[in-house]
Specification:
By secondary structure, the chain is of the alpha+beta class. The chain has one helix at residues 4-30, and strands spanning 54-55, 58-59, 63-64, 69-77, 84-91, 94-103, 109-115, 120-128, 131-132, 136-140. The strands form two sheets. Strands 3, 5, 6, 8, 9 and 10 form a six-stranded mixed beta sheet that branches.
Length: 141
């Protein structure tokens, strides 16, 4: 025997089920078919600030005697600590690497000991890979 209470429960469950099916069915039928799926927009990862590579160079003396030791010091930005910088000299219109190099410190600085024997004005620069300092002149007398 079905009691009045069970009848009310079954009716309530039936109504709720019908409403749920009716709402889901009409919502699915009412939505137009998408010709192209909506593009998913993703936030691009923040780009790392690119540091421009640069080298500064300054000789300890503007004029020296032949084979007298002088220093070329400077700082770098954007270059890996520990990488070597090399001194170059302009000879007959071309930059020639000299046997003077030094590693970069953690702070990006360097110090080169240099002896030049070619008398006259010597145009020099410091390079690391494709990055070069501005040219400077040291006169050897």
């Amino acid at each position: 025997m079905i009691s009045k209470r069970n009848t009310l429960r079954m009716a309530a469950v039936g109504i709720i089920g019908a409403v749920a099916l009716g709402t889901a069915g009409t919502a699915a039928m009412a939505a137009p078919p998408a010709a192209h799926p909506a593009p998913v927009t993703q936030k691009a990862p923040a780009a790392k600030a690119t540091t421009a590579k640069a080298i500064t160079a300054k000789p300890s003396a503007k004029s020296v005697k032949a084979w007298q030791l002088f220093r070329v010091t400077g700082t770098t930005t954007g270059l890996k600590p520990g990488s070597k910088v090399t001194l170059q000299q302009k000879q007959r219109g071309h930059w020639v690497s000299l046997p003077a190099s030094a590693p970069l410190t953690r702070g990006g600085s360097y110090s080169l000991g240099v002896k030049l024997g070619m008398k006259g004005k010597n145009e020099l620069r410091v390079v690391q890979g494709s990055t070069a300092s501005g040219a400077f002149t040291v006169t050897v007398r």
